[in-house]
Design a protein that fits this description.
heterodimer, A: mainly alpha, two-stranded antiparallel ribbon, globular
Amino acid sequence: MHSTPGGTASEVASRWQRGRTLLPREPILLLLPVGFLLLPFFAFPLAILLRNSFFRDVDAGLMAPDFQIGNYAKVLSDPFYLTCYLNTFGMAVAVAALTLILGYPFAYYLVRFAKSSRIFLIWLIFTPLTVSIIARTFGWIVITGDAGLLNSVLIALGATDQPLRILFEVQGMTIGMLHRYLPLMVLPIVSSLMKIDGNLYRAGRALGASGPHVFWTVTVPLSLPGIIAGTQLVLAAVLSDFVLPTLLGTTKFRMLAPTIYEEAVGRFTWANASAMTMIMVILMFVILLAVTLCLRRYAPWSRAL
Amino acid sequence: MTQSSDRSPFLLSATMVGVCVFVLAPTVLAVLASFGSADQIVFPPPGWSLKWYVAAFENETILRSVWLSGGIAVAVTVISTIAGTAAAIAINHHNFAGRGLVKSTLMLPLTLPAIVLGLAILFALPSLGLKNGPVATAIGHCIICVPYAAYLVLASLSNYDLTLERASATLGANRLQTFCWITWPLIKDGIVVSAIFCFLLSFDNVAISLFLSRGDTLPLRLMQHIQSNADPSVAAISTALVMFSVVLMVPLARAMRPDRLLW
């Protein structure tokens, strides 16, 4: 056996084998920084949040350490909070549907027909993610405002004499969200479309299926994992969106994130805010679980992809 | 899917063009509006001027928030990239008990809506001996940046050949030398991409800063400005931010192959 400066070959080999023992030193050392971040500033705060949701609000920023479910009962029975949840989840579903309708054809074109322009199109859909959300939102204010581009064009064309009210309404917020979350839907779909074996199309056509038939029976089912991943990303993002409801929306259509912020920071009802947040998280995970179960039941092939 | 020689249907191409216009429209309009001369947001503006740039760069509050957000973002980038890279190497190189669990735990902050995290950390601040401010904000940002950093570095490690490190060790290199000469060149691109992402995520963050800062980061100041006096000075700042993103795209485009991340 040759001796090298790093030790004999067998010593070196055994050093590289160390990773397989039960309490290996090196991975633990490598995971320490992450542990120092995630234990005190992720796990611990979530535990506090859960605990607070069972406390009782006494005074501004003061909670009595009771253990009671009054906050949950209050949030789930008060029409104000219920409307808030309904608005937010309705919005999440609507935005997910719109991004899918707009994003799927884009992804399909990109994968199926774009050749030299493919990388350009990927960057085009990806780039907005790197531009400040405030800048993009401001752009929508310029477009949809009462004296904005859209209304100027419509009035110049004589389509309307009164400016259409889009900004500071549900419509304005929807457009903003559709724009903000489109990449989250498109990128996973592109990823799953790229993985489909092109021979499957040729086989479908050779067996006599028409183009649309192949699309609906081969392409769409096989891209289902991408659709699901995109939908999950969009749903979760809309639920916690604070910027767009605040800058483009209206207080007449209450959304969850601004309401939770107001409860916690404006009114200091911390126990109540905690319960609202917990309900939001639970609802989100119920939806994700339901989607996963449905997929397993009705589209078992998607797990193998 | 391989490229096909079919021509795309007209409707599909039209949708494609529409989406492209839709995607670019707000950014372009924000930039155009910054050169307007009107005191309100009017488009098309009655004339063109640079006065909103002057107004924006004389606004002390905004300028201070730029430095604050920049400082927080740099700290977040350094901390999360180092922590994320170390974690990615641990997961990729070592086969220890609970490896799968560690990997999924690491990605957990991504599945949680950011506002939940912001609120939770706010409640935990007193017990941790912290107050609202830049430190708390930076820590909060790190929690959402670390999973991205770990994921992006892991992606760049996916084709990594461990025998290279073994070869380097057998040839007498120590751990540090192996890292500098073997590991670093191979994962450098992933680290650059993750650093740029962490910077942008932190610099643009609202959901966490809302609860943990004193309302003084750049995005929060811009939001306050839009809400109180909707004048085009925000457009001037926005244009500067767009330019900043464009500048960052150069190293990003060099280091990131979107096709490698996507398929």
